[in-house]
Design goal:
Low-confidence stretches of chain A: none
Organism (chains A, B): Brevibacillus fortis
InterPro entries (chains A, B): HTH-GbsR_regulator, MJ1563, WH-like_DNA-bd_sf, WH_DNA-bd_sf
Keywords (chains A, B): DNA-binding, Transcription, Transcription regulation
CATH class of the largest domain in chain A: Mainly Alpha
Number of helices of chain A: 7
Distance between the termini of chain A: 45 Å
Mean pLDDT of chain A: 94
Helix content of chain A: 55-70%
GO molecular function (chains A, B): DNA binding
CATH superfamily of the largest domain in chain A: Winged helix-like DNA-binding domain superfamily/Winged helix DNA-binding domain
Oligomer: homodimer
Number of domains of chain A: 2
Protein name (chains A, B): HTH-type transcriptional regulator
Largest interface: A-B, 68 and 68 residues
Structural class of chain A: mainly alpha
Strand content of chain A: under 5%
Order of helices and strands of chain A: HHHHEEHHH
Radius of gyration of chain A: 24 Å
DNA sequence: AAGTACGTAAAGTTTTTTCTGAACGCTGAA
DNA sequence: TTCAGCGTTCAGAAAAAACTTTACGTACTT
């Protein structure tokens, strides 16, 4: 039964697609966009926006925004096809790199913002602590705040180094891509 | 000016609180819950739900759910105070551990789900491939799907090992907590 | 046992996000 | 130049999430 075989195949694909999509909120990706990614994943050809809309039963507009989200994370690439005016897209199959790009894009960004705010406030508080005569009560609160901020700063500097090790791929020295590899 | 000093202090705190909160969507944490975390961070005493609601100008119910979210991620702990019937909460100050717990709770969970789905579909497809007579067209699609799934599986097993290295704290051998530490 | 204080569940409201359909601008073809 | 096909912007509709109010169950107090 040809149809039966196809059903098995598609069911197997759909399970994967749906599961992956459901867990992609960790990447800040919405479920529908996750489904789009999954759909592209099992395509041996690149897809156009119309084909995606067809496959998911959604509007072309949604496909456009979804595909852009995925491109921002380097999970999908635009492909040049001569002879057609439509844009073609296909998945970037290097999941390791996807993971790394995610961290680069999102976590690095947050990390920098946080470090900046922490440093700025830390400096203000240190100045306050040194230049002004503080009541004991205020002084204690300032001290505590400084301690908390220094504590957080230390962590974010660590996180930054961790992200460095992802970006440089040094992490693979520590956690190799394949388990039993020399 | 006592009031002026307090203003400087509070502004410094608020900058940190707001920045941290804003970037906590990476942890799957809503901004208000992030603000709650930040508020607790600069408290040298534990807080009750009522105090939190007071501090943030929000309902006690919201504080209840917010604090639960933070507890699920081990970012906040419930403290026993004798003499009062109210629950008291305070932040867990070990940010490294917070980060690790986040990965344990969320990423590990997603990882396991995905591995499970990938393995199940992989097995189905391998069975299909071996036991049935397939048309060439179907056979190719099955082969491609298997390749994609194996590829993803390899990545998730790596991710799983990465998370292991967080949970076991081995990661700190590779990326030390403090930069210039022997 | 009755009353009070507390945390949380449930239902409803408001706000935010996601999705769609229409309209626009651009590019290549006739 | 005009027209058709494409991706995207924009405004509005639908769906989801966050927040609040009300109500409930439990545990301590009297």
């Amino acid at each position: 039964m040809d149809t039966n075989q196809e059903k098995i195949l598609e069911k197997a694909q759909e399970r994967v697609i749906e599961t992956l999509a459901r867990n992609m909120d960790l990447y800040g990706i919405t479920m529908s966009t996750g489904l789009l990614y999954g759909t592209l994943l099992f395509q041996d050809k690149s897809m156009t926006l119309d084909e995606m809309g067809e496959a998911l039963g959604m509007s072309k507009t949604s496909m456009s925004t979804g595909v852009r989200t995925l491109m921002d994370l380097n999970m999908v690439e635009k492909i040049w096809k001569k002879g057609t005016r439509k844009d073609h897209y296909e998945v970037n199959l290097d999941w390791y790199q996807n993971f790394i790009d995610l961290f680069s894009v999102k976590w690095r960004h947050a990390c920098e913002h946080n470090v900046h705010a922490l440093k700025k406030s830390l400096q203000e508080l240190r100045t306050l602590q040194q230049t002004e005569e503080l009541t004991e009560e205020i002084s204690e609160r300032v001290d505590l705040s400084i301690k908390r901020i220094e504590n957080g700063l230390e962590y974010y500097l660590w996180l930054s180094r961790l992200i460095d090790s992802f970006e440089s791929h040094d992490i693979f020295q520590f956690v190799p891509k394949k388990e039993n590899e020399s």
